[in-house]
Amino acid sequence: AKLESNTFEALKGMMRSAYRGHKVNESIKSADNLMADPRCDKALKEEAEYIKAKSYLSSSRRDEAFSILERLSEDTKSAYGAEAAYLIILDCYDSGRFEDVQTKVYAFADSGSSQNYWLAKSFIVLGDSFVESGQIRQARATFESVRDGYKSEGAGDDVMDNIMMKLKKLDEMESNRQ
After folding, report:
1. Helix/strand/coil for 25
2. Closest by alpha carbon to 19, among 53, 67, 60, 68?
3. Contact 89/108 with Cβ under 8 angstroms?
4. Where are the beta strands (DSSP E) in the chain?
5. I need a labelling partner for 141 at 20 to 30 A (CA). Which of 5, 40, 78, 130 fits?
6. DSSP label at 166?
7. What pLDDT tens digit does each residue of the chain (178 aa) get?
8. Max alpha carbon distance in the chain (Å)?
């Protein structure tokens, strides 16, 4: 039993190590091996799915990545699900599907998620989509709402820096129009 336990721990370690080392194919294979193990619980399966999706994205296998991200995004209460929802919203923005951005951001906000970082990042994308659509006042209101309501989650949290930069750009755009 101890050998089996060590093997399972090794599978987890290999998956995480391959992912951190940007070894895409090894990450995907390790995630599949781990998920096939009957000892793999729900939380570990979610992590493995996330690692597969991010590995697929990094190797431009978008269809496979977004198939997994769609599944993960159904649970925005988890960090992986919230990030998946954000990545889907960002993809809608990148594709110029601004109505989808709006729909998905509001659905994310209504989901009851406590993942405030990913929610704030999603609202930043919503503000950007308003800028792209020429809805500058709506963009400003969105950015100001995040600025006024968001509490930083510590080191590495880039939300407030992004918000301040975007508000400054809006100020510059407006002063150039006058």
Report:
1. helix
2. 53
3. yes
4. none
5. 78
6. H
7. 455 567 878 888 999 999 999 999 999 999 999 999 999 999 999 999 999 999 999 999 999 999 999 999 999 999 999 999 999 999 999 999 999 999 999 999 999 999 999 999 999 999 999 999 999 999 999 999 999 999 988 888 999 999 999 999 999 988 887 7
8. 75
